[in-house]
Design the sequence.
């Protein structure tokens, strides 16, 4: 850049910064009003008191204490308290869905990135994978009903070929259907970031690995997986945060019978028990942040080894 | 190397191709089943076999399901989707332009947008619901203090489609819009703008006649994200809406009460709207792209 140009740039810079701020201001304002302020209010109201009619400003840990009431010991039946067992159940779904979407998403992304050679075909197949993302989640959930129901296609087939004598009951409104629906809905969140990372991998590195005598699996594990790490982490964060806070999928696919952390918050909100719901939200947020932190740490440590 | 490779597929191609094909069937198969079943005959039920083919369940849907006015919910969601789309496009493009310059606090703003994207939706929804209820309490006590009894009696709630629900949707659509703008401007050649400036264009002229035509297809993409994400959104809307419901919320409620193929007909209708929006978006993006390249060529 020539000297005069630099000079004019320097002269207009303060003006530019102000203009930039005006351009970003509406965007920032939306997040201030509908994200930051609500989060602060959740933190504040989680310390409030309440009765049947109103919220009472206070600073007390009553809500938190009541959430963990009885959690210091097992119940008479040998179970955990409600809060702990709900978290364990949600974490179980979270882990299963994360593991399945990761393997499936990685395989699909790997196929698209390294086995489909024409870029036109690559784009077409990628779009094919992402189109369902823009359709309704509830529709995609209920679309399993005619397949998995008591008289559904799967049971008809199983009974038709004589594998079972009675309809299989655990196909729908069960843990199985919840996990299936999660995988169906959210594998896309793994595919896109992993595919994006894979497309940035320099293809000559793979050639170098092959030339140096690495087998296909060695190249995959020692070259491609580490270089796709960013995509894997981003996808994992998406899937984990979605499943941890979910109440719609677990509600619809679990036949409204399975508990989840998100569902507790939703029910308490609908009974206008805002301080309790807020305290639960704070705990959920803390757990999610710990998982995200642990996830990024885990991967970093492995890189250093 | 390309020629050598194309003779034979790389090892692992066929197993992965099968996985991919099964995945596509897994994605589209169920959706296709309810599409077929929504044309079930009047005697038919929720599962196969098909008992004739008819539009019976679409007529039933138009009459309304139980106490739910589907038509009104449909129009509400369409209206909200259009408003969310407009806000998402304008605010994302403006913010995208701002991020190209020196923007103090830009990093913080970016991280806030990303945090909003990955924040469990129930928390955002609860927060906005809470915020508006506290606002209601505040307004009511202010009205009482001012002695405006008449206004107080008429005042319902600040929660609503174009207040709290709009805000809730924007916390979900705007991060996508910003990420798309980043991707666009990362590949954008500033030489065109400099040329426009050297030729004496005002900032508005260079945006209107140079930048906008070049980023046009992506802007349409942002609009498509804005509309379809809003059209299907449930989790963030659920606690942040007043007395009226959007179409997906009604649909979620209907899953446990409706036991006829009408619900599949509703599914087919909403999916057709989603596909129509995608089709229009892709079509106009392609048209813009072709026109732009023709202009550059000619």
Sequence:
């Amino acid at each position: 850049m020539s000297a005069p140009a630099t000079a004019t740039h320097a002269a207009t810079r303060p003006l530019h910064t102000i203009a930039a701020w005006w351009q970003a201001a509406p965007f920032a304002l939306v997040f201030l009003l509908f994200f930051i302020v609500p989060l602060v209010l959740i933190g504040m109201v989680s310390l409030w008191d309440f009765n049947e009619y109103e919220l009472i400003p206070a600073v007390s840990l009553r809500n938190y204490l009541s959430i963990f009431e009885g959690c210091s010991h097992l119940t008479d039946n040998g179970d955990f308290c409600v809060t702990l067992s709900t978290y364990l159940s949600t974490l179980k779904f979270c882990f299963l869905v994360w593991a399945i979407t990761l393997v499936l998403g990685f395989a699909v992304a790997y196929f698209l990135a390294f086995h489909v050679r024409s870029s036109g075909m690559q784009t077409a197949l990628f779009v094919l994978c992402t189109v369902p993302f823009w359709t309704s989640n509830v529709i995609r959930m209920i679309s399993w009903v005619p397949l998995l129901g008591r008289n559904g296609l799967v049971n008809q087939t199983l009974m038709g070929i004589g594998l079972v004598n009675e309809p299989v009951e655990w196909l729908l409104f069960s843990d199985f259907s919840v996990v299936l629906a999660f995988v169906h809905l959210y594998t896309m969140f793994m595919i896109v970031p992993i595919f994006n990372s894979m497309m940035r991998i320099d293809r000559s590195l793979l050639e170098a690995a092959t030339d140096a005598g690495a087998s296909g699996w060695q190249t995959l594990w020692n070259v491609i997986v580490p270089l796709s790490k960013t995509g894997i982490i981003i996808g994992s964060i998406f899937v984990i945060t979605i499943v941890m806070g979910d109440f719609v999928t677990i509600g619809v696919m679990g036949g409204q019978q399975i508990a989840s952390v998100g569902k507790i918050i939703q029910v308490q909100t609908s009974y206008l028990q805002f301080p309790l719901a807020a305290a639960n939200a704070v705990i959920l947020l803390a757990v999610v942040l710990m998982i995200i932190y642990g996830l990024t740490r885990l991967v970093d440590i492995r890189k250093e080894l | 190397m390309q020629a050598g490779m194309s003779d034979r597929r790389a090892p692992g191609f066929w197993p992965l191709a099968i996985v991919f094909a099964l995945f596509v069937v897994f994605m589209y198969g169920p959706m296709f089943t309810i599409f077929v079943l929504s044309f079930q005959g009047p005697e038919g039920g929720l599962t196969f076999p098909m008992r004739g083919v008819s539009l019976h369940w679409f007529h039933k849907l138009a009459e309304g399901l139980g106490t739910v006015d589907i038509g009104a919910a449909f129009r509400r969601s369409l209206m909200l989707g259009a408003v969310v789309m407009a806000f998402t496009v304008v605010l994302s493009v403006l913010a995208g332009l701002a991020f190209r310059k020196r923007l103090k606090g830009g990093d913080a703003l970016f991280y806030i947008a990303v945090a909003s994207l990955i924040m469990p939706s129930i928390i955002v929804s609860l927060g906005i619901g809470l915020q508006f209820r506290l606002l209601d309490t505040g307004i009511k006590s202010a009205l009482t203090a001012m002695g405006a009894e008449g206004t107080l009696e008429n005042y319902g709630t600040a929660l609503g489609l174009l207040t709290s629900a709009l805000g809730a949707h924007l916390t979900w659509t705007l991060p996508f819009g910003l990420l798309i703008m980043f991707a666009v401007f990362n590949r954008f050649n500033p030489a065109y703008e400099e040329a426009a400036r050297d030729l004496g264009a005002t900032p508005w002229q260079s945006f209107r006649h140079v930048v906008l035509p070049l980023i046009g297809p992506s802007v349409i993409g942002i609009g498509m994200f804005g509309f379809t994400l809003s059209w299907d959104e449930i989790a963030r809307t659920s606690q942040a809406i007043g007395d009226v419901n959007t179409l997906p919320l009604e649909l979620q409620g209907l899953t446990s009460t409706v036991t006829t193929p009408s619900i599949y007909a509703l599914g087919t209708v909403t999916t057709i709207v989603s596909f129509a929006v995608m089709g229009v978006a892709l079509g106009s993006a392609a048209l813009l792209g072709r026109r732009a390249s023709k202009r550059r060529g000619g």
Q: What stands out?
A: Residues 3-45 of chain A form the longest helix (43 residues). Strands of chain A lie at 49-50, 55-56.
